[in-house]
């Protein structure tokens, strides 16, 4: 019975990762479909933006690289959103918040799945190779189904 506990724990943890990943795809596609006009406006504005990339040289001092990248991202966000109406800006901010929230939920669930899978592999005395293979396969399958949901929704919208 103890072995089943480890198997079910790992399976449940992976389902906790796959579920939010799938739900994120569904909700983000729904939001993106509702914001299609805003996205066209943003794409046309983005072509006119000339912001230099932060040099990889700054990885010598990682905190400086992170701060410079954050400043650069802020400039990009400001230049993209400056021509949007209040309603469009709120819609875009909602989309951004939704995306980051689902990313945090899925990442947290993925970390739990890593731990549960490790404990299961440790219980069954599997090698580290088996552990890495399980993690790689299940993560890839989950991200592939995220991509499929996004693609199917895009194809549905076009028809």
Radius of gyration: 20 Å
Number of helices: 5
The main pleated sheet reads as: none
Percent in helix: over 70%
Structure write-up:
With 159 residues, the protein is mainly α. It has one domain. Helix content is 84%, strand content 0%. The chain is built from five helices and no strands. It has helices spanning 2-34, 36-47, 62-81, 86-123, 128-158. The mean pLDDT is 86.
In short:
With 159 residues, the protein is mainly alpha-helical.
Features:
single chain; 159 residues; mainly alpha; 5 helices
Present the secondary structure layout.
Blueprint: H1 2-34, H2 36-47, H3 62-81, H4 86-123, H5 128-158
């Amino acid at each position: 019975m103890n072995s089943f506990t480890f198997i079910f724990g790992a399976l449940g943890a992976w389902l906790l990762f796959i579920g939010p990943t799938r739900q994120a795809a569904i909700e983000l596609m729904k939001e993106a479909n509702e914001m299609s006009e805003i996205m066209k406006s943003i794409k046309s504005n983005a072509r006119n933006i000339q912001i230099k990339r932060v040099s990889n040289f700054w990885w010598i001092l990682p905190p400086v690289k992170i701060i410079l990248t954050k400043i650069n991202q802020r400039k990009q966000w400001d230049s993209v959103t400056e021509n949007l109406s209040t309603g469009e800006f709120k819609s875009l901010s909602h989309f951004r918040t939704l995306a980051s929230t689902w990313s945090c939920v899925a990442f947290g669930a993925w970390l739990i799945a890593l731990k549960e899978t490790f404990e299961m592999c440790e219980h069954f005395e599997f090698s580290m190779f088996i552990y890495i293979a399980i993690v790689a396969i299940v993560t890839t399958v989950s991200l592939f189904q995220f991509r499929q949901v996004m693609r199917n929704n895009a194809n549905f919208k076009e028809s």
